[in-house]
Write a structure and sequence with these properties.
The structure holds 2 protein chains of 2 kinds.
Chain A: H1 12-19, H2 26-34, H3 61-78, E1 111-123, E2 126-131, E3 134-140, E4 143-148, E5 151-152, E6 158-159, E7 163-169, E8 178-186, E9 198-209, E10 212-223, E11 236-246, E12 251-261, E13 268-281, E14 284-293, E15 301-312
Helix pairs in contact in A: 1-2
Chain B: H1 9-31, H2 51-55, H3 57-79, H4 82-100, H5 111-114, H6 116-121, H7 123-143, H8 150-166, H9 180-183, H10 190-194, H11 196-211, H12 213-218, H13 222-241, H14 253-256, H15 258-263, H16 265-286, H17 292-307
Classes of the chains: A mainly beta, B mainly alpha.
Chain lengths: ~325, ~325
């Protein structure tokens, strides 16, 4: 997992090491992290340390199904095409949509993007579902701001913090590459929101070679850490991605490699992923991705799928 | 930026150097010459958007193929010498006429993927063209709403033109520029002399782009509009079938769509200026002996000229 891309997963090994005496099984460790207590249990009714082992049920498909149904209905309604556009939006790699690596370009000025993504993760025999809606607004040219509100589905689910971000692109690619910076925050809001806010800085480069583009993202945690929302947030991370545009099909194929490390536990983990983004209507993009760990720590399987709908909020004519 | 962990100073130091390197590379790039701002802008909202695509799908999709045609042309002219460009364009022409224009893409083509070098050289030109093409498309959308009174649609079009012109950094002027800019500069007419068939194809694109307005204006209902659009498409298809019937001069809006030009003289001037600029850039890119830096500088100069509504205008400010 690249820093900040989907910082809703646990840093299993780190937590496992710390909690080994209390929770002998990796899954139990993972459950604690998934429930947001990180290294410091939260004194809330949902505190897993106040629950029995059988009550601390990691979010399974069974538990998530009703919420999934509601989410699907919501998505169906939001996904109805409207009169706006972003016909090239399929090529705009958003963080986590479908992989961690993003490109160095923001949404158009005057565009509002509504992202409606899900993710399913399986690790050490446990699985979980997340719904991670996000709003992005092209506030001025070459800059966007946004707000995400990841929600873990299931009986022990809840809001996993609010995630504002700001992104600025410095240039279109000239001789070298396009360059952008991104600042991510998280506020400890919601049952799984953690106890501490976090701030992350990411540098993003994109170089284009026709239909092929390569991307490099590198991020560092400036504030917060183990007490951040839901899972612990890696201190540092980088990712490299490559994509290939099928211009006639209005689709892009993506592959990336991510490395994250946690300063406190000295853990590091590698994840590889492949994905696709495809334009469904002039205003709607569908994305799908699959990722897997390459190191002992990390998800056995992480699937992401979602829709991104672009809406014009620029002064118009009615 | 990174707080070192006592027992991990080596790794933290590595991360520091990595980030420092990325920051340096980024700043270097951002400050380097020949880089432009991205400046992508969403186009104005409105319930009319995409009406043309929904109701006249075949025609709307053709414009996606036109975008590809322009992009591949510029890339070939920029990156190849005359002989290589000629050979490549011959293949591209075949592909366009026998494949892409027969089965156009559903959505707009990402031109950067087709013309990466050209896009990187003069991103400003790409933004100017994109915004003018968006104006084209939105005007079709408005006029395709046959259920609205004509006066209402005309007022909406004028408002869209106002919004377009607000962006003075990228808008073609609404004053008709002199044709001498296209025909009488030192580099002028090279492309049409060297690539007459491909040039004819480009002019056929431009003919259809402005030629759809009058059927949409004169069609009193959707069915009539469909028939009018189909007629224009038939003429365009006939041109493709016989390249000797391609236009021999740049199609002027007032000639091809007189109703539209009379109702919206500003739009007619904008589109004529746009189409002239396409030709000017083709000529510049086809000019041998100019470095890419020189071509970029000259193209930017020509783009500035095309945004300037105070000089080099047509006599009487009306295209003949």
């Amino acid at each position: 997992m690249y820093l900040g891309a989907r910082d809703t997963r646990c840093n299993c090994r780190r937590i496992r090491d710390v909690l080994r005496t209390r929770h002998p099984s990796p899954v139990a460790c993972h459950r604690n992290v998934a429930l947001g207590n990180g290294l410091t249990p939260r004194a809330t009714p949902r505190d897993p340390l106040r629950l029995t082992e059988s009550q601390v049920v990691f979010n399974s498909f069974d538990n998530g199904a009703p919420m999934l149904l509601r989410t699907t209905v919501l998505v169906g309604l939001l996904a109805i095409p409207v009169t706006a556009r972003a016909q090239h939006d399929y090529r705009n790699l958003d963080r986590g949509r479908p992989l961690a690596t993003e490109d160095a370009y923001p949404v158009e000025a005057g565009a509002l993007e509504v992202m409606i993504p899900w993710s399913f993760e399986r690790e050490a025999g446990a699985s979980g579902l997340m719904f991670e809606p996000e709003l992005t607004w092209g506030i001025i040219r070459n800059a966007m701001v946004g707000l995400g509100a990841p929600i873990r589905l299931g009986n022990n689910g809840g809001l996993a913090g609010l995630r504002p971000f700001a992104f600025y692109n410095f240039n279109s690619q000239g001789r070298l590459f396009a360059y952008a910076v991104r600042l991510d925050g998280s506020a400890p809001v919601g049952a799984l929101g953690g106890r501490q806010s976090t701030v992350k800085l990411t540098i993003i480069l994109t170089a284009s070679f026709g239909a092929t583009r390569i991307h490099a993202n590198s991020g560092v945690l400036l504030k917060g850490g183990g007490l951040g929302p839901l899972a612990s947030t890696p201190s540092e991370g980088f990712s490299y991605g490559i994509d290939y545009t099928l211009w006639r099909q209005s689709a892009v194929l993506i592959a990336d490699l991510q490395r994250n490390e946690d300063r406190g536990s000295q853990d590091s983990w590698w994840i590889a992923g492949v994905g696709v983004r495809a334009q469904v209507t002039p205003t709607l993009v569908f994305d799908f991705g699959a990722q897997r760990r390459l190191s002992p720590v990390g998800p056995d399987l992480l699937l992401t799928a979602g829709f991104t709908r672009a809406i014009s909020v620029r002064g118009g004519v009615e | 930026m990174i707080t070192g962990h006592p027992d991990r100073s080596g790794r933290v130091a590595t991360a520091k150097w990595r980030d420092l390197l990325l920051v340096s590379c980024g700043l270097l790039t951002a400050c380097a010459r020949n880089t432009d701002q991205r400046d992508a802008t969403m186009y104005p909202r409105g319930s009319f958007n995409w009406t043309f695509l929904e109701r006249h799908n075949e025609a709307a999709r053709l414009f996606n193929a036109f975008d590809y045609g322009h992009a591949v042309l510029y890339e070939r002219l920029l990156t190849g010498d005359s002989a290589r460009a000629t050979a490549a364009l011959r293949e591209d022409y075949r592909f366009l006429v026998h494949d892409l224009l027969v089965r156009p893409p559903r959505f707009a083509v990402a031109e950067e993927a087709i013309s990466p070098q050209y896009s990187q050289l003069v991103w400003t030109a790409k933004v100017m063209f994109d915004q003018a093409h968006v104006l084209h498309r939105q005007l079709y959308d408005v006029y395709a709403q046959a259920e609205l009174p004509l006066a209402t649609r005309q007022a909406m079009v004028e408002r869209l033109i106002d919004l377009y012109l607000l962006d003075t950094e990228y808008a073609f002027t609404d004053k008709p520029k002199s044709m001498a800019l296209m025909d009488d500069q030192t580099f002028s007419q090279r492309f049409r002399r060297e690539q007459p068939v491909f040039n004819g194809l480009i002019w056929a694109y431009h003919w259809l782009q402005v030629g759809l307005y009058d059927p949409l204006i004169s069609g009193s209902d959707e069915a009539q509009q469909r028939r009018g659009v189909a007629t224009q498409l038939g003429v365009f298809r006939a041109m493709l079938a016989d390249s000797t019937t391609f236009p021999t001069t740049m199609p002027m809006t007032a000639e091809v769509s007189p109703l539209f030009a009379a109702a919206h003289p500003r739009a007619a001037a904008i589109f004529d200026n746009l189409h002239m600029t396409h030709d000017i850039i083709s000529d510049l890119l086809a000019t041998p002996g100019m470095s890419w830096v020189a071509k970029r500088a000259e193209i930017l100069k020509q783009l500035a000229e095309m945004r300037d509504g105070t000089k080099n205008l047509m006599e009487g400010h009306v295209h003949q």
